[in-house]
Input
Amino acid sequence: MGVINVHVETAGEKAYRRVRNDIIFGRLAPSQKLRLEALKDAYGISVTTLRELLNRLTSEGLVIAESARGFEVAPVSADNFKELASLRLLLECHALQRSFALGDMDWEGRVVAAHHKLATMEKRTLAGDKRGLEVLKRYDLEFHQALLSACGSRVLLDAHAAVFDKYVRYLMIAVIFRDAAPPEHQKLLECALRRDAKTAQGHPRDTHHGLCLLHADQHAGELARASWDVRQAAEAALGIVPFYVRSWHLADIGLCAAHVRL
Output
C-alpha cells in the first residue's frame, strides 16, 4: 500500500498564520509595539517560537525588528502604497499575458470555480451581510491566483501573492468597500474565457490601480503630517472615501473591512 503524507500544522505554523492575518486585517495596527509576553499568552506559544515567527514576518516586510526596541508592526505610508500598487500592476499584467496564452481547459475550470465562490460572497456582502469578510478577501486572492495560475512560474505567483496581501492591508486599514467590484471581476472572467489578455491587462490599469496611484500621490504629504489615529491617516493617504459599517465595533475586530476589487 502507498504511504499518504498528511501535513500536520504545528503550533508555530498556526501562530504564524494568525499573527500574519491579524497584521493584514488590522487587528495588529501599523506601528504597534509587539510585546512578547503579551503575545505569547494571546497566541498560546513560547517566546522562542514567537521570536522565530516575528523574524519570519520581518523578512516579509510585515514586521520591523530593532535590536533596542524589539518588534513592531510595519508602518503605513503613501509612498509604500504607491510602490505596492505599481509592483502589483507590473506582476499581474505580465502573469496574465502568460497565463491566458498557456492556460488549458483545467485552468478555465479553476478560474470559473474561483469566480463562483467570490461572486457568491460579494452578493452576500452587497446585500448587507458583513460576516465572513476574511473569507471574502481569501476568495478574491484565490480568483486572482486562478487567473494567473497557468503562467508557468511559481516564483511569479508567490511574488504576486505577497504583494497582494500587503496591498490589501491598506484597504483593510482604510475600511474601503466598492460596489463596482463584482462587475469588474465578471469582466475579468469573461476576458479569461475569451483569452483576451489585452483587455484584461488594460482593465486594472485603467480602473482601480490607476486611481490608487493617483490618490496616493495626491495625498502623500497628508500621511506624514497626520496626528490622528491610524485609520484616519490611512484614509488621508489613500484619498478614498471609506464605507463604514455601523454594526461593527472597532475595538472588537480591529480594522477589518469589506474587500474591494484591486
Q: What stands out?
A: The two ends are 47 Å apart (CA to CA).
